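Protein 1 of 2
SEQ + STRUCT:
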Amino acid sequence: MNVLLSLDLSTSCCGWAKFCLDTWQLLGFGIVEPDYKNPKKLLTYPQLHIVKLRRLADQVIDLIDIYVKKIVIEEINRGKNRLGQKVLDGFHFVLLERMPWDIARMVVFRDSDGLTGWRSAQGLGLRLSEIDKETNKDRKKLNKKIGRGQKKLPLITQKTLACRFANKTYGLDLDCDRDETDGDKADAIGLGHFYLRKG
């Protein structure tokens, strides 16, 4: 069996999905979370991140078995958090640097947004409906009235749309409001689905 591994990389929770390249069947999905602990806070930035990212890269590489023939990774989106963005950029590099050359040659990157992104109208068409927009507008108003320390109403986000898509397409029950890691799983599934159909 020839397998596609799709990865939604993050420094806190990486979503992954595996598909059969021949039948396009979803074979499995899940998350990888960093298993590095920082006992007694011995390390700080940047040493902490170097150790954590190397270990996280090794955990992701452990997903690659002899059946994986192609790996698609979501390209980095520009963010407002300067340090977080730098660390995520570094994680992409560390992952590629730690891969054996024959595995690194299997890797392709795809955008999530923009004209050709997997979420875009030309991709999977994951856009907020008018009802979603109204719901978010109402919830934002209500959230302003909710007191400090009380749970706010969840907004419909890109992760919500990815969960809806994965649930409808593959008969799943992902809900990022119930479990935020479901959004990472759904993103990996959406990315892999897009790659299989659009390349």
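Protein 2 of 2
SEQ + STRUCT:
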Amino acid sequence: MRSVLQVLIGVVAGFLLAGLFWLVSRLPAGQPIELQPAPTKTPIVVNVVGAVPRPGLYEFADGSRVQDAINAAGGLLTDADTSAINLAARLEDGQQLVIPFTGGSVQGTNSNSSLGQSTTVPSSGDLVNINTATLDELDTLPGIGPTTAQKIVDYRTQHGPFQRIEDIMNVSGIGPATFDKLQNLITVGQ
């Protein structure tokens, strides 16, 4: 009986070893799973020009409306004409949103159609004198927010009036790119 028991244990051990060998030697089937990041939509870019305090390029989520673009550009100026604007219209990538002034004109907008760009060039009466402007007046300039406007006031208090418009680049936070947006909008007076 003992020999039968030994044979039976040998057979069971053989099956266990064969099963273990089969599991270890088996190759994985299929390709490994790779986790991908969730797809994100690229923002749309809109150029807002005309009767807004801070014209320029702004990024929005797909499905944004004209009102969102106006809010991003600082709202409407008092002489803006909204009768020709559909504030609920959806924005499209690459769109130029023109906010007309009262009287139907878009003051100071020169369009360069070959490049798809526009620049704002105000008349000499619309220039902001960086030596006398208030914080609110400075804040209306593109690329200048409340913090930078305060830095401009602090700079001219400490160093005296600006001699040339290029001197505004001495203010912390205003570099050549910001100056390019400002140079046709500012003056140092006479």
